[in-house]
Amino acid sequence: MKKFVLGAMMMLSASSVYAADIKLPEPETSGGMPLMEAIAARRSGRTFDTKMLSEQNLSDLLWATWGISSEDGKRVVPTARNLQDIDLYVLLPTGSYVYDAKANSLKQLGDKDLRYIVAKDQKFAQDAPVHLLFVTKDKKYGEMHAGSMYQNASLYCASANLKCVVRGLYNRAEIKQALNLEGETEVVMTEAVGYPKAQ
């Protein structure tokens, strides 16, 4: 009986770990602004509306940044030897998450709003409701892969009339500790995303 109760408690605990995961709607992978127009329109923006992105915008943004684009698991950006050894973390007002492209969901890592850590040295970024964090331990190619990812994100933002800005001014040690990143794994770049601020 004790074993049964203990097992039931463990199952309940496990089921509640990801109780705040976010299941995203299917990304819209067609349409949008023509590529050459998106390239011409891409700009960094530093004024954000504080309202949260729609679930569809968020899903499309994450797919464009690090989604799966083929039946054999290829991603929307290339990686050296196709190792795909980089993760896309997402900071929202509701907590910190890691993007699970296969499940098309955000797996919650914690329920604390950590945006202030990556935004505090540039106050304008605190208004952005979404911060993309490019996380890897690959010292040779990691920043190159992050660059491919944030360029895709920026082009999507241009197409969807969102504001974004790539940012490297943040305390790497502080965010590493807050996210419980181990060993040589660290945040190599961030990108703030949101709707344009109403004039």
- Continuous helix count: 6
- Give the overall pLDDT as a whole number: 91
Shape descriptor: globular
Largest sheet properties: 7 strands, antiparallel
- How many distinct beta strands? 7
Query: Rounded to an integer, what's the Rg over CA atoms?
Result: 18 Å
**Helical residue percent band:** 25-40%
- List the secondary-structure elements in sequence, H or E: HEHHEEEHEHEHE
**Strand order within the widest beta sheet:** 1-4-3-2-5-7-6
What structural class is derived from the secondary structure elements?
Answer: alpha+beta
Give a structural overview.
The chain is an alpha+beta fold and 199 residues long. Helix 2 (35-41) packs across helix 5 and helix 3 (55-66) runs antiparallel to helix 5. Strand 2 and strand 3 form a beta hairpin. The chain is 33% helix and 21% strand. The protein has six helices and seven strands, in the order H-E-H-H-E-E-E-H-E-H-E-H-E. It starts with a helix and ends in a 5-residue tail after the last strand. A seven-stranded antiparallel β-sheet has the order 1-4-3-2-5-7-6, with helices on both faces.
